[in-house]
Amino acid sequence: MALTSASSGAAEQLQPQQPWMNPALDADSRTRLLLEAMTRDEKLALVFGYYSSDASWKKFKKPAEGLEQSAGYVGGISRLGIPALMETDAGTGVASQPGENARLRTALPSNLAVAASWDPDLAYAGGRMIGNEARMSGFNVLLAGGINLLREPRNGRNFEYGGEDPLLAANIVGAQIRGIQSNHIISTIKHFALNDQETNRTTLSVHIDDRSARMSDLLAFELAIAQSAPGAVMCAYNRINGNYSCENPWLLDEVLKRDWGYRGFVMSDWGATHSTIPAANAGLDQQSGFPFDASPYFADALKEAVEDGYVTTARLDDMTTRILRAMLVNGLFDDPTKAGDIDFEAHAGVSRAAAEGAMVLLKNDRHLLPLGQGVRSILIVGSHADAGVLSGGGSSQVYPVGGVALLQPHVKGGPRVYFRSSPMQALAARTQARITYDPGTDIKAAVKLARHSDVVIVFAHQWTAEGIDSTMRLDEEQDALIAALAGVNAKTAVVLETGGPLLMPWVDKVAAILEAWYPGSSGGEAIARVLTGEVNPAGRLPVTFPRSLEQLPRPHLDGFPEQRNARFTVDYTIEGAAVGYKWFDRRRFEPMFAFGHGLSYSRFELSNLSADVDDKGLSARFAVRNTGDRAGGYVAQVYVSPVGGAAALAWEAPKRLCGFRKVSLQPGASADVRLSIEPRILAVYDEAQKIWIIESGDYDVSLSTDSRNTVTHTTVHISRQIIPGRVTGTE
Ligand code: BGC
After folding, report:
1. CB count, 10 Å around CB of 452?
2. I need a surface site. Which of 139, 298, 352, 436 has the fewest CB within 10 A?
3. Residues 253, 275: contact at Cβ < 8 Å?
4. pLDDT at 335
C-alpha cells in the first residue's frame, strides 16, 4: 500500500510499518490493520482500566502515567502508537477526585438546568466548552452524557441528567455530547440503564418489561446515541430484572449493539463489573476503575477465559475493535491531546449564558420581578448568597476556577461546595437599592429585618449528591424561614438552588419563585441579571414538580433510608413508560408546577398551527409573536394525543411531547416555526416483532405553553406505519 503523508500531526511521522496511522484511510480499515498487528496481551491491556487516584482504603496507588486526582486511566501501547485513555468526570466540566490538588475549571450549570433551557444550541456550546477544557487538561475521554430519565424525583443525581422526557433529554444530552466530541475526544453516555435512584444503587433490581423500557428510559439513550454517536456507553450499577447492567445480554448485546447497531464500546461504571465470563459475553468491552470492583475480572481471569475458550478470541477482538474504532473515529490518534492554555474568561461567558437560559420563573404575582427602579431596600436571606452558589456533589464535582466560596467537607456524600459567584454582590453592582444580608439561621432576626425592607429575596438550597437520595423537602428549617418572611412581607421572592423538584408548603404565600438550579461557576451573576431584568427568564421545567409524595408512582422510595447491601426490587411496571407528566396525565393528578412550565417578563402569542403528514412523516407549523415590550425567549411545545382508536389504547399516557423550539424575539417580532416529528415518538414498540408501530387513526396535535395548557390544536389523520426496531446488518 502506498502511503502518502499528510501535511501535519501524527501523519508526519507516518511509519510504513504502521499503516493504521494514515488518516486518509477510513476508521474501519485502520482498526482492522491495527488489530492484525496486536498480540493477545496487548488486546487484553486495552480492555482493563485503572482508577487514576490513590485509593488508600484499597492500598492502591494511581498508575504513574495517569493524570492526578482523575477518574480513570487505560494504558496505551506505544509500540503501535495507541494512545492511553485519560478519563475524567463529568457532565458539567472537568471534575477532580478528592485530594489536595484539584484542578480548577469552569463549571456549567447542572445538566438538569441545561435541559431547562430547552435549547440544544446552548447545550452544544456548553459541551464544546467543557470538552475543550478536558482536552487542554490532557484528557481524551470525558465521562459525561448523563441521561438517566428522571423517573424518581428524589434521585440524588437528577442534577446530572436531562429530565423526565425522552425527546427533550435526547436533544439536550445529544447536543452536549456532540459539543464535547467536536474537540476530538470521546464522550460517554451514561448510566446504561435505569439507574434512577441512588439508594442501594449497586444492589437493587429494577423490574420492567422490554416494551416499557424501550419507550421511556431506553428511548432517551437511543435517540441521543443516534444523533451524537458517543464513543463509549457506561453501563450502570443496578440490576435490571435480576441481572446486573454490566453483564446483561438483553441490555448490552441485544438492545444496544444489535437492535440499535451501536459500534462504540461499553465501559463499566466504577465498581459495576461483577464477573469475567458472563460480563464479557454479555457485551461489556472494558472494565473500568480498578480497584473499585471486587476483583480484576478483565485482567488475568479474562486471559484465562480466552485461553480456555469460555470467551472466544472473536469476542476479545470485538472488544478491542470497538475501543480502537471509537478512538480513531473521534480523532484520538490523529489529533492527540496536549495540555494548553484555557480561555477561562470566554468560558465564564459560556457558563453564564447557559445559566441564564436555564432559569425558570415559576411564579411572579403582581410582577414583583424584575426588581423595579422604585425598590429602595432589599433583604437577601440565606444559603450563603452573600458568598456564592451551590453545586451538586459526587464524582462530577468541579472545583471552580473562580474559587470556592465555602467547602463543607464532612457532610455525607460531600464535600458540599459553593462556587464563589455571589448573587448578592452581583445584584449590588446592578441596583441603587440598599442591600442587607441575613444568613437566615435565626428566623426571628430575619423576620425583623424583613418588616423594614421593600423586597425580600430568600435563597433556598437543596443540596443533592451522588450516593444519597433526597426527600424533596428543604432541610434546616428553611420551609419555616420562608413562610415566616412571606408572612411579614408580601414582596417576598424565593430563589431556589435545587438538584431537582421540590415540595413547597409555602408556595401560595410567596409572591415570586425563580428556579435557578445549581447555576454553575458564573451563577451568581446570572441570577442577578434575571432578578433585575437584564435577562428575561426563558427556561421551562424539564420535570414535573409534584404537590405531594402521594402523587408519585412510589410514594415511599424503595430502600430508603438505605441499609447497606440490601437487595430488593423496584417495581417500574407500576408506571411503565408513563414517566413524569405522562403519569400525572394518566392519573389525572394536578401537579404543583407542570412539565414545560415557565414564565417570562414578556408576553407571547402562538398562532397559525397546522399539521401535515407526507412521506417524511408528521410535521407541524406555527407562528410565535412577542406581544410584550421586552425582548425574550419563548419555548413553543407541541404535544400529540391519539384521538381514540388503537393508539389511544396502546399509548402509555394521553399525550407525549413530540417537538419543541426555543425562539428569541424582540418586542413585536414573530417567527415562523416548522417542526418535523420524530416517528418513534408517535409509535408503540412491539417486542414480539421488534418493530415500532404508528397506529392508523386521528391524532390531536396541540401547541402548548406547558404540558397542561394548550393554546391551539388541530387534528391529523396518520396511516399505519412500521419503523424497523433493529438496524440492518447487526444480525
Ligand atoms: C459514577 C460515574 C463516574 C465514575 C468515575 C462513579 O461513581 O457513577 O458517573 O463517571 O464514578 O468517577
Report:
1. 11
2. 436
3. no
4. 98
